[in-house]
Design goal:
Strand content: under 5%
Structural class: mainly alpha
Largest sheet: 2 strands, antiparallel
Shape: globular
Number of helices: 10
Oligomer: single chain
Helix content: over 70%
Number of strands: 2
Strand order of the largest sheet: 1-2
Distance between the termini: 49 Å
Length: 240
């Protein structure tokens, strides 16, 4: 696919993400922790889509094309584990609503992302993750598979956790959380089959849209225990 085609696909996904995020901003003072985590996932996905646009200048030799290519690939690898880490934290919060358990989960995920950042910086000298040659062409390094594999493992852990704790979730929450992994997994397969076309992050956008339609649009105004309208809904109704 051409540079223009990839840019158009990513911009379309960015617009969808911004619409979802703008909806949350309207009720920012009412957001729960899980809603804030969801918004953070939206922002990281948007950042990666923007970085993916820059990385599509691969092979182009304009004045700023090498800078765009280097910056785009660096940001993609830097945030590649952050996105599934945040999703795992979000799914955990949806299930347990327990800050102590959440803190125990967060610590190793932070360590994992720091390790990825260190490897990425070292890779700028060693080419472990990737190299960009003098013709501004991206080449996979011997460890390029590592972030992608860890991403799939983290997403799989999220789905397994949701499946094992399904009794604690409403059906409208259970299936979007359980099946979140499916569109990104399909995107990864397609991206391997059709190298050079942006699939994976756009499939993540699809998963986030499904989650929004089934969970987040109702989350702000619903009590976790009873499933009925909460005080926040009453306050908004009285304000109107």
């Amino acid at each position: 696919m051409t540079l223009t085609g990839n840019i158009l696909i990513n911009v379309f996904s960015l617009l969808i993400l911004m619409i979802l995020f703008s909806h949350s901003i309207i009720y920012a003072h009412l957001l729960t922790l899980s809603s804030r985590l969801y918004n953070l996932v939206l922002l990281i996905t948007a950042l990666m889509l923007a970085a993916d646009i820059f990385s599509r200048f691969d092979g182009h030799n304009g004045q700023f094309d090498p800078l765009f290519n280097h910056a785009g690939n660096f940001l993609i690898f830097l945030s590649s584990l952050l996105l599934p880490s945040l999703w795992l934290v979000y799914a955990h919060e949806q299930i347990f609503h327990d800050m102590h358990k959440l803190n125990k989960l967060t610590a190793p995920l932070i360590g994992l992302n720091i390790a990825n950042a260190v490897l990425l910086v070292i890779s700028q000298l060693t080419g472990w993750y990737y190299i960009i040659d003098t013709d501004n062409v991206y080449h996979r390094g011997p460890l390029f598979w590592l972030p992608a594999t860890i991403t799939l493992i983290l997403l799989a852990i999220s789905s397994i956790m949701v499946f094992r704790q399904r009794g604690k979730l409403k059906r409208s929450h259970y299936y979007p959380l359980l099946l979140f992994i499916m569109p990104p997994l399909l995107g990864i397969i397609l991206q391997w089959l059709f190298y050079g076309i942006s699939f994976m992050l756009n499939c993540v956008m699809l998963s986030l849209l499904i989650v929004f339609l089934n969970i987040q649009s109702k989350e702000v105004f619903t009590d976790h225990l009873t499933g009925v309208n909460n005080r926040k809904r009453l306050d908004l109704f009285m304000a109107d």
